[in-house]
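Q&A log
Question type: sequence-to-structure
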Amino acid sequence: MTTGFRAARAARAMIGTPFRLHGRAVGHGLDCVGLIECAYAAAGHVLDLAGLYGLRNRSLDRIEQSALRQGFSRGERQLQPGDILMVLAGPLQQHLVIAGPGNDLIHAHAGLGRVVAFTGRIPWPVISQWHLAPKRQDR
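Response status: OK
Response body:
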């Protein structure tokens, strides 16, 4: 089982967790970055994206460079469990979504106030897709 798949399963287990801006703990609440960090931490891969992400971002370079330094690769491919999508949820509002272990996508939904999953078409433009580089994946 890959690290990405374990992260996807961990993210699914976080569905229903309250949304909390800058939240980084399942018991306290999560935002989209906290969801990704906690899911990957549960899978044994520690990420630190929080200091680079704000509610409104003019540049994605710092976030993407940090993800690349931490073992992720950028590239379009068929979505796999644990892949991270950066989407444009509103003007200057980037949002992170993680591919679940099925055909679902999991994210921290501010409007609904909790972590949720959905299936089907992604409702936002996809800016970037990252996956854990093969050399970092468990076999």
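Response note: Residues 3-136 form a domain with the endopeptidase fold (from Nostoc punctiforme) fold (CATH 3.90.1720.10).
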